[in-house]
Write a structure and sequence with these properties.
Two copies of one chain form a homodimer.
Chain A: E1 7-12, H1 21-30, E2 34-39, H2 54-59, E3 64-67, H3 78-89, E4 93-96, H4 106-115, E5 119-121, E6 140-146, H5 153-166, E7 170-174, H6 178-184, H7 198-205, E8 213-217, H8 229-239, E9 243-248, H9 265-276, E10 284-290, H10 297-311, E11 315-316, H11 318-321, H12 324-334
Parallel strand pairs in A: 1-2, 1-3, 3-4, 4-5, 6-8, 6-9, 7-8, 9-10, 10-11
Amino acid sequence: MEIARPYLLFLGDVPDALAAKTATGIVDWRKDWCVGQVRLQGCAADTGLPDMSIGEGKAAGAQTLVIGAVNAGGRLPDHWVTSIVEALDAGLDVASGLHVRLGDIEAIKEAAERNGRQLHDVRLNTMTFATGKGTKRSGKRILAVGTDCSVGKKYTALAMDKAMNARGYDSSFCATGQTGVFISGRGTALDAVIADFIAGAAEWLSPETDDNAWQIIEGQGSLFHPSFAGVTLGLLHGSQPDGFIVCHEPTRTKMRGVETPLPSIQDVIDLTIQCGRLTNPDIRCVGIAVNTAALDEDEAQAYLAKIGEKHGLPATDPVRFGMEAIVDKVSAEFGAP
Amino acid sequence: MEIARPYLLFLGDVPDALAAKTATGIVDWRKDWCVGQVRLQGCAADTGLPDMSIGEGKAAGAQTLVIGAVNAGGRLPDHWVTSIVEALDAGLDVASGLHVRLGDIEAIKEAAERNGRQLHDVRLNTMTFATGKGTKRSGKRILAVGTDCSVGKKYTALAMDKAMNARGYDSSFCATGQTGVFISGRGTALDAVIADFIAGAAEWLSPETDDNAWQIIEGQGSLFHPSFAGVTLGLLHGSQPDGFIVCHEPTRTKMRGVETPLPSIQDVIDLTIQCGRLTNPDIRCVGIAVNTAALDEDEAQAYLAKIGEKHGLPATDPVRFGMEAIVDKVSAEFGAP
C-alpha cells in the first residue's frame, strides 16, 4: 500500500502519551510529512504539532488522516467514527493501525464509497504476495535483527537510514511493521501476512534497486523468540541482507512475553549468518545497537566499549551516540558512497 | 476443526488419478473411515472404494462429504456445486481442500444454513490462535523434517505413527497440511495461518497429553527452503519435538520451485538441533527416511546402508522397508512402550 501525504494525525482522546506512540513515532522521523494533529477534548497525548480541526488540516494540504493512537479495548469509539467520516467527507483518505478493519464499520465504508476515498488498514494485510524465490536482487541491504522483540530494531533501522543518507549514501528505509509503514509511506505489516508468503512479502518489501542504493530494513522478532522466530527467519531469507545490525537491551533477562532466556549477542550473530547464507552467502554483521536507557552515561560507554571489543564490531546506542561508527564500518566493508 | 466421520469421498469427474490424490491419501491411511466414493460420469480416478450415490452414502452412515479431488483452474464447476448441495440436503457436512471457500458460493452457503450443516475449508484457516509460549508440555513428540518440500514428510509421519501403534506405543498423528487434516480428522493447514501465530498454531496442533503418549507431527517445508523456512521454524519451535526424522529424496539437486541447492542431511540435522533446542533442549535425531523410488532395490539398500553408517542413525525407506528400524531407535533412546 502507498499512503498519500502529507498526513493529518488523529490522536483522539487517549488518556496517556503511550496510547499515541504511533503518532509520536511518525513525528519523530517524518515531521515534514505531517501538517498537524487532531485532538478531541480530554486528549492527554501531544506530538507537538499544531492542533487543527479536520477542515483546517485539509486546508493545510493534508491528504490522509492517520489514526495514530489506539483506544483501550480495541473497539473504535463512536465519536472517533464521527471524526473519520468527517475526514472522508472532507476529501481525505484514512489510514489506521487499529486491529479493527475500517471498512467493517458501515458508516466509514459508506463515507469512503460516497467520497471515492481510500481506507488503509496497516495492521491487516490485504495484499497477495508470491512465495519467496531466493534469487539475488541488485542493490545492497542492511537488516536490523535482535536478541528479542522490542529492543529498538525499528529505531536502529531508521537511525541508520538517516545516517547513511547524511553521509551521501543513496539509502531508503523499508518498513515491515505498522508504525514503520506510516514512516515509509509504503510497506506491509509482515506479521499479518499468511505464513506461506513471509519470505515473498519480504522480497516485495525490499525490491531490486540500483547497484549502489541501500535499503535499510526494519527487523521483526528474533530467531530465538519461541513465538515469532518464523517471521524473523522468513524476513531474513526474503531480505537477503548484505549486512545486519544486532539490536540488544542489556538489562533484559527473559524474552518478551515468554519464559525463554535471552540469547547472547554472539548466538544471534552466529545463527543469523548461518541461516542468512542461504540467500546471501556474503552476509556479515556490521555492528551492534544497544538500548542503554537503563544505564548512566559512563556505564553505557563502558558497556559499549566492552561488547565492541569482544565482538570486534562497532557498538553504539543509536539514541545517545548516533550511528556514525556503524556507517564507518559499512564504508570500510562495502566502500564509500 | 473436527470433521465428522465416516467420510463419503467425492471425486467429481477429474481427468486423471493425480487430481484425486487427496482422496487416495485418505484411503491409503484411513480406509475404515470411508464408506464409499462418489464419481461423476467421465471420472478417471478410482480409490477402489465402492461407488455410491450421495443418498447411498448417507444410508451407509456417512457424516461428511469430502471433496477429495481438485478441478483444473481452481474454480468449483457448477455440476460439483449441484452434488455438494445435494449432500447438504441429504444431511451431510461438506469438507473441502479446494482454494475456493465453500461458503463463498451462494447456493452452498444457503444449503448449509437451510440444513444446519457444517462447511469445512481445510486449506483456508479460519481459526484464531494464541501466539506461541515455548513452555514445555507433557507427552512426547516426533517431528518429520526435510532437506526440501515434498520429500515424504507426511508419509513418514503416518508410517511412523502406524509402526509405533503396532509396537504398543500410545501414538497419534498430528496433521499440519490439508490432506493430513482429513487423515487425522483434526488440525489446520499451517501454511495458511497468519505469520505471527505459526508457533502458536503448532502448539495447539500438538497439545499437552499423557506422559507416555506420543504425537507424530507432519512436517512442512524445510529450514533451508528460501520460500517456506519461516513456517518450518515456527513448526519446530511450536511442536518442541523430543525426536525428529530427516526426510530426503536422493536424486533431487535443487529445492522445489527455486534455484537453491539442496542442503545435506547433516546440515538439516545440525540446524534442526540448534534451533529446536530453544523449546526442547533434549531434541535429537532418531532416523533418516529416504524416498528411494528412483533407485532399484540393491541401490536403495546400498544407499541406506551408506547414509545410516555415515550419520550413526537408522536409515530406511518407509514405503519399501518400513519404519521398524526407527521405532527401535526410539525404544532405545526413550524406552519401551
